[in-house]
Predict the structure.
Amino acid sequence: MSISYLENIIYNDVMDFVGIDKFSLLDYDDMISIVLFSPTCNFRCDYCHNIEGVVDSKSYIPFVDIMSYLKSRIGVIDAVVISGGEPTLMPDLVDKIKAIKALGFKIKLDTNGTNPDVIARLIDDNLIDYVAMDIKTSLNQYEVVAKRKVNIENIKKSISLLLENKIDYEFRTTLVKQYHDFDVIKDIANDIKGAKKYYLQKFVYREGVINNSLQEIDINCVKEYVTYLKQYINKVEIRGY
């Protein structure tokens, strides 16, 4: 990839990132990472921690500044996590990832799975090393959680794409008492049957969450979920409890 090509990407931004976490040990297993937050999302899940600080942010970071910082971290940071919001809504996401990848970093993509064609291109072009796809709920309940119209066929395509095992990946669900009862967990088990990894994440209320009546699920209940899920999924673990 030529320098002039990289400069064209850097100085002709289509959409900038809105946030950066300059040091993370949590977002990419066994990697020291930097997390970049994309500025928009096609869901409005009412337990999302990133609505106020990310999706509704009016503070943009020029990509040239991000690239300059990343260059200064070569040899210190292992990976860059592209998170959000929903990164696949960025029209220049592929070009931005090409520029970052050219610096030698591993790339992890966090996604809700609504744009399988973008995910497929990134995988086929070897531009990403890891995908974390959120499973919001059972396929027949998606709009209840996302609070938006959802093309379920696209969610199914993204699940199937990852199940092909062309890339390292995980599925994950943030558990909320009002949305994730045992029947929902059973449906999810069927939806992602045969998956490599599935993480059940603790919901933690904090300022900025849209619905302040939401509650976490008791750990004993979560352990029952894990026992059930392990019948269908290779690795099931709990995060945050």
